[in-house]
Each structure stands twice: as C-alpha cells, then as structure tokens.
Design brief:
Elements: H1 13-20, H2 30-34, H3 41-49, H4 53-63, H5 67-73, H6 80-83, H7 96-110, E1 124-128, H8 132-143, E2 147-151, H9 160-163, H10 172-183, E3 188-190, H11 201-207, E4 210-213, E5 232-233, H12 234-243, E6 253-257, H13 261-273, E7 277-282, H14 293-301, E8 306-308, E9 310-318, E10 321-329, E11 348-352, E12 355-358, E13 375-376, E14 379-380, E15 393-395, H15 408-426
Parallel strand pairs: 1-2, 1-4, 2-3, 4-15, 5-12, 6-7, 6-12, 7-8
Antiparallel strand pairs: 9-10, 10-11, 13-14
Helix pairs in contact: 1-3, 1-7, 3-4, 3-7, 4-7, 5-7, 8-15, 12-13, 13-14
Subunit structure: Heterotetramer of 2 PreA and 2 PreT subunits.
Protein name: dihydrouracil dehydrogenase (NAD(+))
Function: Involved in pyrimidine base degradation. Catalyzes physiologically the reduction of uracil to 5,6-dihydrouracil (DHU) by using NADH as a specific cosubstrate. It also catalyzes the reverse reaction and the reduction of thymine to 5,6-dihydrothymine (DHT).
Amino acid sequence: MEFLKESLPPLSLSEAIGEASRCLYCWNPPCVTACPTSIEIPKFIKRIETGDIRGAAEVILKANVLGGTCGRVCPVEELCEGACVITKLNKPSVAIGRLQRFAIDHFWAKQQPPSQWHIQKKKKVAIVGSGPAGLSCAATLAQLGIEAVIFEKNRLPGGLSTYVIPSFREPIEVSLKEVEAVKKLGITIHTEKELGKDFSLEELRTAYDAVFLAIGLGQSPQLQIPGEVYFLDSLEFLSKAKLEPWSLPDANNIVIIGLGNTAIDCALVAKKIAKEQVSILYRKRLEQSRAYPKEIEKVLKEAVPIQFLIMVKEAVVKENKLVGLKCQRVDPHSSLDSAEKKEQNGIEFFLPAQLVIRATGQQKPLWITTMAIELDNGFIKVNEKYETTLPRVYAGGDCIRKKGMFSTVHAVEDGKKAAFSIAASFS
C-alpha cells in the first residue's frame, strides 16, 4: 500500500556529499544549540563530506541513540534546520535531517550495531515504557555501567515510533532495528507487562534501585456527544494504518476532529485511503493550533480543507452505520475559552462522513492519580533532575511535558538526562 512506503526518498552517496558541502561549519553553530540532544551537527556533516559515513553515524549516536528515528521524524524546520545560518542568505537550509538519516541508514547497512557494554550490575533500574524516552534512558544507563530493565505494555517495543508514527515518515523496521540495537547494549525488555495490571509501582521500587516512568499519554479525551462510540481514536487509527492496514474500514468521506500534529498525521494517512474527501474540523482559530506551521502546509498541499470554529454536536447514524456529523459554527467574536460557547446559536450543518477520527489531544495518565506522585495540571511533576515527588522515581517524555514542544527528540533528551541524574544519585 502506498502509505506504507516512505514518502521522502533516501539520499544517494553523491547527493549526501553534495548536500554536506553546503554547510558553512559555523564556529558557534546555532543548529547544535537548536538540537535538543546537542548532536555535533557540523562535525557529522563534515565527515559525510569527506566520505567517512561510519564516523558521521558515530558522532550522531554518541548524542542520540535513536538517531535513525529522529533523522526522519524530528520537526527539523522548527529546530536545527530552522536555525541554519544559510537561511539568512535566502537559501534553503542544509538538509540536516536527511543527512542524519543517510548516515545512520548507511551505518546499519554496513556495520554491526554496537557490541554489549560491560554492565557492572551493582545497581538496577526499572524503566516503564519502551518509547524514545525509555529506550534513551536505558541505553545511557547501560553506557554508564548500570543495568536497565524495560517493561512495555504492548506486544512490540518502540512506543509511538512502532505503533503510531505513519510509515511514510518512519517504517516499522526502523523503529524495531533501533530497539534491537539498544537490546545489544545488554538491556532486557519485557513486553506485554503493564504497570497497574501486571505489577505495581511499589513492587518496582522494592525490587529496583530506581524507577524511570516513560509512560507517554493516553488516547484522546471523549467529546461527550451522542454517537461518539462510532468514532476512532487517532492513535488507534494510526496504529491500524501502520500494523493492520487491511483492517481499516472503507470510507468515501473521512473527517478528522482536531488540528494538532497527530491530527495532521491522521489526515495525511486518511488522504491515501479515502475514496472521496478528507476534511479537518477545528473548534478554535488557526493561530491557536499547536501544530507546526510546516505540517499545516503539508495538509493544505494535499488539498485537505480545514474548517475553523466548528463544534461537532453529534454523530449521525443510520441502520447502525455512521453517515455523517451534525456540526455547528462557533461565533468568531466569542471567547473560545468560554463555557457558553457550546450554547451559542451558530449555524448548524451536516457533513457526510463514514469514518470520523478523534484527534483532540491526549489524556493525561489518569492511573497515576492513584499513586503518591504529585501532578502538575495532570502531568507528572518533576524537578530539574527529572525526579518525581516519590523518592527514587523519575519520569520523562510526554507524561511530564506540560508545555513546550512534544516530539521524539525531546523525549530522547529527557531519557538521557534522567539517566545521568539516576547514575549521579548512585555515586
């Protein structure tokens, strides 16, 4: 299927060397400052230019163990490429993301993953979740000589990289290959083991010297409207599209509710399977969306219409099948944060839809409210060392990120910094 293939082709060796030669090798490179994992970008690019592809990959992996994933899915326009000084000359930035992907892919194709590090096994850390934050934390701990054991609730490890990020951005093989590379550092991963079901946090605290929570967030919150049972959650839709594309229902018209980065991923996937129209409905104004501007440009290029200031009132169901949505336009002069906005007498209309995807953000980890951990607006509260209010329990990734950017590379950096804090607590 078309949407299972990467949309951006890999660079050839000559293309990579040519692109690398555009780098100005700044003395105080802003691209490095803009990279959450502080990859020495000019250094790895210079190695590509001189043909030392393995050396380039080693520079990347030293800072970011998930360099292959981040080279594909990082919002580079907002980070390293957005800071590239060449743009000040009205020229396109150096394609840092594609060069990073080139180096890591070449490394995997030509070299064996790193051999197992010597684990001292004097200390043992439990990690809950095998997404980017969990894998990064485990790999960093292993490199520091500390044993790490990961517990993952799903059948496959890798978190959103495996289950949710669309294949046209990152094929599942890339995520699983990185997982295997991490395991070769001496890390054990137990799958289908869920916190709160198969074991408790207190049991982990008793059996291990420290615990790192990399539990991410949950599904989209319910809209509390009639017929919502017929909607698909955004994560469920993306997971089906990636792992079980044959299970997706046939639909002439597909509607996505929401306008975050996940909603845009849903729209881009839906565009490839809808027989007629894909639409996005958003209850706020464009400037209130948390989606990256470049991502919004992508759906507009795909001719996906976005309707702003729209409230979905109910699902329209006939003969036990979803046929559309009853919607209402919100008064553009009203306060969108007002509790009365749902009661406004805006114009109502019907929108045909055989598949509706709810992409209205992700719920906070509600189960954590039963634990003795302090929360901050529903997110796990941590200090600058990634420590929670529960002794010897740390957290990172989306479950702590109350504000700022939510991305794979930020989760990787959380895991790495938390690992250093955990190691320092043992000394």
